[in-house]
Amino acid sequence: MSGLRFTVSPAISVMIAGILLFGTAKAQTPTTIFNFSDPGDFKPTEKFNNVSGADSVFLTWDAQFIYIGIWGSGVDAEDLATFIYLDTDPLGFDGQTNGYAWTENIMLPWKADYVVVTKENYSTPYIEVMQDVSMVWTNIGSASSNMLNSDDVYFNTSTNYKLIKIRRTFIGDPRTFRIFMFTEQQWGSYYRTMGWPAAGWIDDIRMPSQSATASYGFPLADGILPNDPFYLDHVPSYAGTWTIGTTGDWPTLYDAFGDIGYNGISGNLTLLLEDETYTETNGVTIDLVPNSSPSRRITIKPAIGITPEIYFDDLYGLILRASTYLTIDGSNIEGGTTRDLEIKNISGTSFDIIEYAMNGPGCQYNVLKNCKITGNSMTMPASRGIVFTGEGHHFNIFAKMRLRT
After folding, report:
1. Which residues have C-beta within 8 Å of that of residue 94, sequence separation ≥ 6?
2. Residue 2: count of CB within 10 angstroms of its CB
3. Domain boundaries, the chain
4. 1, 81, 139, 239: which has the highest count of C-beta atoms within 10 A?
5. Using one digit for the tens of pLDDT, what is the confidence trace for 73-94?
6. Which residues are within 8 A (CB) of 16 and not within 5 positions of it... i.e. 6 or more apart?
7. What is the pTM of this model?
């Protein structure tokens, strides 16, 4: 170790060797839907029963489309219009709570950015897409057809079933979204039904001040179980793959965890290091991230082919403060064991390069593997490569690490 130390306090359990696999395999969504006549392509984890006036709703997505299915008696009736409200920037401020409809708008519990309307008519089906533009609902596409703009929006009905697909790039290519929808009869009393999610929604004739009170919120990421109750009334945040680097989603780890620590995560999150060199002029503290769990882990690792060096030029290095379910994997190969990530102290000051610290509870279920930890000088005996302070640190794993000056 050449001057660097690995220090462990009492009442701490550590595993140094093999890697345990945490969580449950959840590679359910995305799903590509090919069968437009019945919901046969949807998986059980993509089915919802909390819909008024129908049997069930189905929801999934793939890299190109969001797919929504409605199943129940009469769903395929002529002149039924389905209104789908989408908030495509849940962490932003755009959109309107005044939800566009064909007279008598509804009130939403959040600000919608888009409304997608599909109307079944045996002779002339209809699609309309509205976008909020500076607080004005603006038509960005309509067609007297069941297809808009060569498949930007498509719908199909068959016996007791309706499928709608929406191209993700047509609605701004969001990474997350919130959704509510209902269906309205285009005759007689203009009865509104099939509210989803149904909580707080009342099926009734079209009237002023109707409102939705519930919604679902999802990250458009792999490994999501849509009908997990976690996503009901959830404000979706980070999940899937994001990047750190000069042209990435954040320039530094400090910036990334400023956002992630505040907004939390909505699924497994991978942060790819895209640059060869990072200079962190502030210590990076990773606290307990909201919503982290065995099925929602954070992984930091180099992008394929990148051998990044992270320089800490401050009084502090990387501090895991009650962090849980975090993996730092230094290999730039998926599932690899190469040590491609190096974390260095270049400040000229003695400090702990990586500290596992308490913040009430300790650090648990973290994995540190395939990394090189490098101190700044052999003449500074107080420098420690990895240190545990306080108590309550359990089930933390280390594998294939190199510590040196």
Report:
1. 111, 113, 132
2. 10
3. 6-24+237-404, 39-221
4. 239
5. 999 999 999 999 999 999 999 9
6. 397, 398, 399
7. 0.90
